[in-house]
Amino acid sequence: MAERRIEFNRTPPMTLEPLLDAPLAVQIHVAAVTPAAALGAYILLRPKGTPRHRLFGRIWMALMVVTAISSFFIHELDLIYGFSPIHLLSIATLFGSWNAIAAARRGDIRLHRRIVAGLYFGGIVLAGLFTFLPGRIMHAVVFTGGQWSAALAAAVIGSILAAIALRRRRGRLMAR
């Protein structure tokens, strides 16, 4: 009697091959933006003005600048001489980084907070969501294989956004 084996879906949930096969600029970009996303969420959720906040803020800002500069060497979406509208976001990120630092140094914390929140939500969250569209490298990295990886990625992103929104709402209620 022949042995019968039950085969489960053994497709890998995620693979780094598309990223490892990508151009160096893409690899540098992802290597900078990935820790920037996590560190930025941490900074937004933790107390402000502490030495830790300032240290992590400097690191985050440096990661954002590397992310923005590396994007100018990525020409995956070639709309206008190798560039696309996303490169306008990179220019805005560079100017925003400069202005956020200048605002903090002159004590304009309200403006600093607005710029940094805009950089995080526009430059990381919103732009990051577009990288997961079909046909993009990060889509191939994250969504290759089982369907649960897509749900997991959505849950992580949603959890971070919900935590930030709840923390802000709680801060507004306590300020009243």
Automatic annotation (TrEMBL):
Give the organism's phylogenetic lineage: Bacteria, Pseudomonadati, Pseudomonadota, Alphaproteobacteria, Hyphomicrobiales
Keywords (A to Z) from UniProt? Membrane, Transmembrane, Transmembrane helix
**Is Transmembrane helix one of the keywords?**
yes
Pfam families, per this entry? DUF2306
- This protein's name: DUF2306 domain-containing protein
Q: Oxidoreductase among the record's keywords?
A: no
Q: Where are the transmembrane segments?
A: 57-74, 80-103, 115-133, 145-166
Originating species: Rhizobium anhuiense
Show the InterPro entries listed in the entry: DUF2306_membrane (IPR018750)
